Amino acid sequence: MGxxxxxxxxxxxxxxxxxxxxHELREVAGYAATCARAALALFERERPGDERPRVxxxxxxxFAEGAARSKVLRDAAWAAQRxxxxxxxxxxxxxxxxARAALAAAGAAFLHPLAKATQVKHILGSAAHAARALELGxxxxxxxxxxxxxxxxxxxxxxxxxxxxRYPDAPAGGxxxxxxxxxxxxxxxxxx
Length: 192
What we know:
One of its GO terms (molecular function) is exonuclease activity. This protein is mostly helical. It has one domain. The termini are close together.
């Protein structure tokens, strides 16, 4: 059955506007924070003292629990992006993806009600980046990433799945993170 703003069997067109309530945004942000949190220890082990990803995940969780969608949340997301860039510049790819997971978690609160495939990254990006970080931290082992994707599939509430199904399928591209994103997208869309 289609979610609010869609009809059964309807594939959203890129120009469609979707219904998206604040309670749904909060549910998506909480899910994104949970998915990102799994890679946080990896970041903190490689970059002790840099709390920017933790702050971003905490801001996403606070929004999920009722805090305002404010500049604080947006600033935390940008700070996590800078942490990702710093880690990448230091040759710490796993830490960089862990910070990108935190960035995506904070960014989930800013999911737009536009039926664009790129918006799926706001819903599932934290899971995909965390999976890639864990893969890299596990010796670039794809099974580690697949395990995290499966955990994130199991964590998705019916609200998260319903919101996801209002959007077009995840976009092509994005390297390994994009592959992980699409794997999770397909798995969640197959759920009832």
